[in-house]
Amino acid sequence: MSDNELFESEEEIAGEEAASGGKKIGFLSGMVIQILKWVGIVLAAIIFVVTVVVVTLNFMGDRMGSQTRIPVDSESYADRLPVYDWHSLDELRGTTRDGSTFIIQPHIGYDPGAQAVLTEILSRRIQIRSEILLYFNSQDAAFLQNHQNRTRIQSDLVTRLNNNIMRSGRVRDIAFDVFTIIAF
Asked: In angstroms, how far is CA 80 from the centroid of its own chain?
């Protein structure tokens, strides 16, 4: 046997061992390749879906009217009416100076959380009702029926209640659920 034949047989044996060992290495690398392939497919699907959503929203957003957020403390809301706590009085009926009948149901507005004012309103309820009745008794039906005079009536009543009745707090507003003037 020559040396060449000896080395060739060793190469064949080594080649068979490498081939059998290569399958094990190939099996593990094949599994890793399969996992990486599926991870790539999932990532590609996610990127595709996100891209479609972004493009669709941008396309739809151009056609829809733009929506802007309105700040709460903007100057356009500066002239809004303040928020008050309200106390309701029972319905009041009486006659005006010229003999017409009025039916009103006033609500007295005061600062939120002002318990002293509410206590005073409750304790002076009869006096408040009397003051409101006296005001309406002293007015003509034509003045009371005119809608342009409504804010003047409210401010007059607030002034009268604060000056003549209230001691520990202030009435801030007066509003009416029922405001009816009936001429006979």
From this structure: 17
